[in-house]
Specification:
Elements (H helix, E strand, L loop, with lengths): L14 H18 L6 H15 L5 H12 L15
Helix pairs in contact: 1-2, 1-3, 2-3
């Protein structure tokens, strides 16, 4: 099921919200070997927070959307392409 992004929330994130975002960030960092103090980590964290504020609350969906936004899909997960493309 595709999750529709709702209007961006202006409500501050609480500790549960931040804990969810942190878990996604930590898993993503570990899976892709992203150093916590790198520019990539900052971009990734910004994307996670923005998507969360837009209503994407499922951790798996958040990770998938960050992967798509950063172009970090596994080669084995990419759909096949036609020859010559």
């Amino acid at each position: 099921m595709v999750q529709t992004i709702k209007n961006r929330s202006q409500v501050p994130l609480d500790s549960r919200d931040l804990a969810t975002c942190q878990r996604v960030f930590d898993k993503f960092s570990a899976d892709y070997g992203v150093a916590r103090n790198s520019d990539e980590a900052e971009r990734m964290a910004s994307i996670i927070i923005e998507l969360y504020r837009q209503g994407v609350r499922d951790p798996d969906h958040l990770q998938s959307m960050v992967e798509a936004a950063r172009g970090l899909f596994e080669t084995s997960e990419r759909p096949p392409t036609a020859p010559g493309i």
